């Protein structure tokens, strides 16, 4: 699925902002520009942009400070840092903190756009996984504490009789809990439940 979300450019230099918006338009990529980190954050929503291009050094909030605030949201689009020569160590630190990449000024136009397109593609895939996890988390929220206990034992492959013994409840109660768990989680079998929750922390 193509990513139709615009690119966000955050840079205090007007010439750089205009050049980047124009560059992206030549590859039929929409871009929105902001002159400061403060202006960007005031208008930011995780679902709005498919990729964010951040200048490292800006008056007020730096690119790194903006990046840290983005992490407070439940989802963060890929972030590419634009750096001057002296900013490379900072950019490397940002990579360790989860940034997608960094590119030095002056940059190669094709290299930057190719990187952007990879980020847009990666963002769409990451959003799909994130949305699926959000859906699972919502369904898990419907479970009672006892249902969660029973569910963990179901996933572990325990039979109803074993679950009843471990939790000191009746077989009938286990059966009722099992039915409610499957219904709330939107699955029909214990195998489907285990597959749905594979890799998640229940």
Automatic annotation (TrEMBL):
Signal sequence segment: none
CDD domains, per the entry: LuxR_C_like (cd06170), REC_FixJ (cd17537)
Keyword list, A-Z: DNA-binding, Phosphoprotein, Transcription, Transcription regulation, Two-component regulatory system
Pfam families (alphabetical): GerE, Response_reg
Segments forming domain HTH luxR-type: 136-201
One Gene Ontology MF term: DNA binding
Record InterPro entries: CheY-like_superfamily, Sig_transdc_resp-reg_C-effctor, Sig_transdc_resp-reg_receiver, Tscrpt_reg_LuxR_C, WH-like_DNA-bd_sf
Positions of the Response regulatory domain: 6-120
GO biological process, one term: regulation of DNA-templated transcription
Superkingdom, taxonomy of origin: Bacteria
Keyword Ribonucleoprotein part of the UniProt annotation: no
Keyword Phosphoprotein: yes
Official protein name in the record: Two-component system response regulator DctR
Organism: Chitinivorax tropicus
């Amino acid at each position: 699925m193509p990513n139709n979300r615009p690119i966000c450019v955050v840079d205090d230099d007007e010439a750089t902002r205009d050049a980047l918006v124009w560059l992206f338009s030549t590859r039929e990529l929409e871009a929105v520009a902001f002159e400061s980190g403060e202006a960007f954050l005031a208008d930011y929503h995780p679902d709005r942009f498919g990729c964010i291009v951040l200048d490292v050094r800006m008056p007020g909030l730096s690119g790194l400070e903006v990046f840290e605030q983005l992490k407070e949201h439940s989802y963060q689009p890929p972030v590419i840092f634009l750096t001057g020569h002296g900013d490379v160590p900072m950019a490397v630190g940002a990579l360790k903190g989860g940034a997608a990449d960094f590119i030095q000024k002056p940059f190669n136009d094709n290299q930057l756009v190719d990187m952007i397109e990879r980020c847009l593609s990666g963002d769409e895939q990451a959003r799909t996984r994130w949305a699926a996890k959000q859906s699972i988390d919502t369904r898990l929220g419907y479970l009672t504490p006892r249902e969660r206990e029973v569910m963990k034992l179901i996933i572990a492959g325990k039979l109803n009789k074993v679950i009843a013994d471990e939790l000191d409840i009746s077989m009938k109660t286990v059966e009722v809990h099992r039915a409610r768990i499957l219904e709330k989680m939107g699955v029909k079998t214990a195998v489907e439940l285990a597959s749905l929750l594979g890799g998640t922390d229940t």
